[in-house]
């Protein structure tokens, strides 16, 4: 009997195997058709979105959501990578649908496709190319200078920290379907046995404030420097489409959740939108990376959806120089052999350089007529810089301009010191010094004021060297939550001050929402000096539990007209859900902090029972609190401007950035000892003095300084570039050899070196 059963089982197995093999053979043509159809769908959606976006900008009909989406558009190699991921994702959806209809049951796309055919899909869509690692053997000067993309910084793991790679995960992602759908995608589905609150409702009840507490210690420059640093480290592109791939629905005209649309639902009786509003705030999901979500199995990776960082993870001033080779070359002035960056050829700032203009068919920065009400107002394009967000606000534009001017100042000085250097050498040496400048300013001056002395001592003690095992990649929680702490420190105004550091009569202070995408204010309204004085001469906003996020950012973000403005707090929480970030308590546990499980414990953590009650009334469980909001609600650490959780996450990230950077400024061999000693005297005050018409500044520009105690620029030491004079470096080396190496001395005597 057993033998008969075995024969029957064997027969069934063979039949099933033949069936599977037959299906596998059929799958080749099915896959090719699916890939072609997927490409057609994606290309159609891309083209529609491009045309529609251009048309909206041309007729001045771009909404705040359009502005945010256009600013977060992938470009260059990033766009190629995002399109490949979209091809792949949609091809597998089509295959799944086709196979599911054949089997009349739910089926995974990979159930009846061979590994060979999966690789074919990857090749046909371009996803396979995203995972190939180039050799570093042919890259010149790898031990001296960085590549623009950060590739080959780590010789063993060549993609560590490089641009266009996935954000890293310190904790596993948490998606509603375990793979790609955000928590809250299906609002009827519970999370930890509770319904998630709407992010706009949370924003209304927790973040809302019209009162601004000013910081007793720090200037608004500290806030803007945080944004500047963020734009050196991370940029996660949105999907470039405004229309659903599958349904063709325009995400701006529907509140339906369909990829890539994940709109922010408006609660009833919303104070801005009124009762029973059926509107929603448009929201586009971040683009997936190849080999994640539905495509992850192909590369042996975790199958959950991952998001891309288009920038390098190193402090290399990529927001000035670009994060890929093509962008880096575009920004250089290659008409001469002087190592300079391009500057504006139409306008100057009282003789000083402006950033060059973008050359695009549309001008998102044509905002002057709308803001001033003067239809005849002269418009200018957005500025061109290493990061596409350079024109986001005039304060950020000012730091970009300082970066451009400082590079060109260094390049000219180095050329005088070493007239035999060619333009490439000058450019790379100036870029290298700039990287060291901002590494020092970030770790010495900026971070201690943000995370406090305790976290500095614990996570960022004295430099101990490069560790090739450390991945410096930017983590998802850092980019999507922790380093958005600065939103709570933004003033609702952009201050502009005169030479006496008093309100500028001709160019007055402006509301924040009237400084978004307004490069014309820099060109036509006094240049950099009034803005920079406003940054160092006015206080930052102090984040408190009672007054968290200015309504300029909650109710008027990117608002130029009466269009539906965005809510930055709601967007931050929605983005965290989009990226599958675990909740607040998981991250407290990650940082070895106490984990609150109920109202009373949360009240003790927050040192505020009222705040704890408000959060628990919304979330019903501490497990569901969005990590950005939970961490933002914590009381500040001693000497810092964030709570314990943000301090831990920020410090951990900067620890990895420093430890995993083979070209960190303190690493032996990157600079000479004399050069390092000179760099230690780097000063943000000196950079301001060297590149503006300002004659008095705070000695510590991040610290509030009374006008009577401002320092004359003539009293601030300049950077000593003499250690970069090549002949002197060579002579010092030769003298050392002469004293210690008799053979070398003999050779030099024989060669007539001393004649």
Automatic annotation (TrEMBL):
GO biological process assignments: response to oxidative stress
The family this protein is said to belong to: Belongs to the peroxidase family. XPO subfamily.
PANTHER family to which the protein is assigned, alphabetical: EOSINOPHIL PEROXIDASE (PTHR11475:SF63), OXIDASE/PEROXIDASE (PTHR11475)
A GO MF term: heme binding
Organism the protein comes from: Sparus aurata
Residues that bind heme b: 487
Name the record gives this protein: Eosinophil peroxidase-like
Gene behind the chain: LOC115581872
Superkingdom in the source lineage: Eukaryota
SUPFAM superfamilies associated with the record: Heme-dependent peroxidases
Keywords, ordered alphabetically: Disulfide bond, Heme, Iron, Metal-binding, Oxidoreductase, Signal
InterPro entries: Haem_peroxidase_animal (IPR019791), Haem_peroxidase_sf (IPR010255), Haem_peroxidase_sf_animal (IPR037120)
UniProt KW Iron keyword: yes
Record-level GO cellular component terms: extracellular space
Leader sequence residues: 1-22
Reported cofactor(s): heme b
Gene3D superfamilies per UniProt: Haem peroxidase domain superfamily, animal type
